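Try it yourself: sequence plus beta-D-glucopyranose, in.
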Amino acid sequence: MRRAFGILSLVLLLIASLSAANDLARPDLAQRVEALLKQMTLEEKVGQLVQYSAGDATGPVSEQVSFQELIAKGQLGSLLNVTGAAKTNALQRVAMEQSRLKIPLLFGLDVIHGYRTIFPVPLGMAATWEPQLVEQASRIAAQEATAEGVRWTFSPMVDIARDARWGRIVEGAGEDPYLGQLMAAAYVRGYQGDSLANPDSLAACVKHMAGYGASEGGRDYNAADISERTLRQIYLPPFKSAVDSGAATVMSAFNPLNGIPASANQMTLTRVLRHEWGFQGFVVSDWNAVAELIPQGVANDPATAARKAILAGVEMDMESGLYRRSLVELVRSGELPESVVDEAVRRVLRVKFALNLFDRPYVPVPASASPRLDAAHVELARTVAERSLVLLRNEEFHGSPLLPIASDKRTIALIGPLADSAVDMLGSWPGKGDANTAVTLKSALTQRMQQTGGQLLYAQGTGINSSSEGGFQEATDTVRRSDLVILALGEGAASMTGEAASRTRIDLPGNQQKLMETIVGTGKPVVLVLFNGRPLALPWAAAHVPAMVEAWYPGVQAGPALVRTLFGDVNFVGKLPVSIPRTVGQEPMYYNPPKTGRPAGNADLSHPPQNSAEKYVSRYIDEQNSPLFPFGFGLSYSRVAYSDVKPGSTSIDVQALNRRAGSVSVSATVSNRGPRATQEVVELYIGQRGTSVNLPAKELKGFKVVSLSPGESQVVEFKIGYDELAFWNEDMRYVVEPAQVTVWIAPDSVRGPSAQFTIVK
Ligand code: BGC
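Structure, out:
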């Protein structure tokens, strides 16, 4: 039976997204906004555009203010990082009882991959290739967060990330705009539900607009230089998808973008977002980004920074205090039209009305707070975690694949610094997640071995970033007494991934590589389980360790999810949402660059070039071009074969496509040749030649998750029309052009059979 993307579910999702999108355009809402706006003083208007953190600082803090006082005067619109029904209600009470106009506060928080029930990090969620799972997880996050007074999350982060050095690659859906679009929409639908007005609806904030993921050298907060075509073709589509799904808010980024700071960028925030996309919600700056226009050199004083940001389309100032200190004076002195402030206030109020905050400002305070997570939420966390795991390698060891772990492996040695680190399982931005609720690999394996009468031996071996080899001996002694080793290695979630955690070495930190080589050197079969927030370049492991699993940070159900897949209770289904390089020197690495005039083709790159034909091609002299593991790749306990790619017709008229009146259907046969049932992510790639601009050789344009029992074959069909074929052409028009089209229906971005058709004039 086919899963995902049935026509019916698409229609239902479309209806749901339309209704959320329409929330902000409701005429009754506009009337209430205008009526309130008329009563507001300039100070009160500016107050709605001001936001401070009333809890943890998630960035530098430049000023201390009295929230209570500002709220009472009607000069604060929003707070972030304050949670809990009692706390949010208490602050809300000041707004509702002491301020003149009783405009409710909006409480925001980074609810990124769960609130209390922590799901896999977003990069891991993307590895499921199942947007409906992401939607379900986000719905749960929304229910948990809203119960504690939080009605706004700074998520989804939809920055396309092509450079594994960038720490924030963990927060998004990876390198591909198509997968990114589907994930962006899924988060928004999940958070916002059917209507923003529902008490458990969490307003989404799509971030960081724009180009933050292209920070040069993968260094956080660095400049991004992206041509308009690439911006529109690659970086903006996930934002558009979130906005089309009704995202109530957008966050402007820190980085300079093509010379203009993203938080003073008229092109992205006004021309594209407001005018082209018709966005009705509001834009909040990233933390202190308004003040950072000064060090970025486009403002010499706070007032200029505030004026530039609001004129560009930043409606709310997170944390810098510059709107609070400057906007009133700027309007009074005539340097800023009051109509600009009015429009910003309108947008903020629109979201507050849509959330029904005026009529329901408080949340019920629970009689007693239970530290336990809801069982159904935990179960979904386990399912999502299982599906986020990517099997990278599963070689034969003494005649049969190492995984699933065979029942004769009675004694298992578990080694490594990530084997029992609950806090790391939660990943970066763990919301209000509690490490005590996270089940580690060690505790889940202990339970499993007890149930099966086997034995688990454990030694940490080394720390995550340690140079001491003090634990190596104990680790090898432990390994020698076992039948099989599970090695749990990787990065520290909080210190090495996420914001302000860029790395120049994307390998195993500390002496983990050495530990791995020592353990593999014992001759025991080793399963390497990797916990990390970015692709790690591990060529030695890919050559010497028989089994490798990419686990990302799986969340509260890390251990059970891993145990169930490693022992084969469930199959591996995840596929990579990012390319894994051989070496950091290949970064930025992504599967869909424009075509070069001198492709390396089939040149044998294992040795130095032998002649001019081998030399003058686009390659490195010391490394292959190909990734260690390509985008879209993931093994399972089955073997799925792809064959018979056939287009329904060999040519199609370009005008019909541009009228959206035609499509070519392309089908392929996928067959499960393995011994187990599986769910295969069937990927559709398209390449076009003969167009006015240089398009990537291959671009993901669709996928379907197909369930296959052993021996079963299915014909999988995709329709290829305007949406799959249009691009920003030479004249910067988004159209289909005559072209020679190659279509792959494939297991990943490298392999798979192809067929062709022609788009004719
Ligand atoms: C991050 C944002 C986050 C904000 C609020 C900033 O430092 O860049 O992604 O939403 O802090 O915590």
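One thing you can check immediately is this: The radius of gyration is 26 Å.
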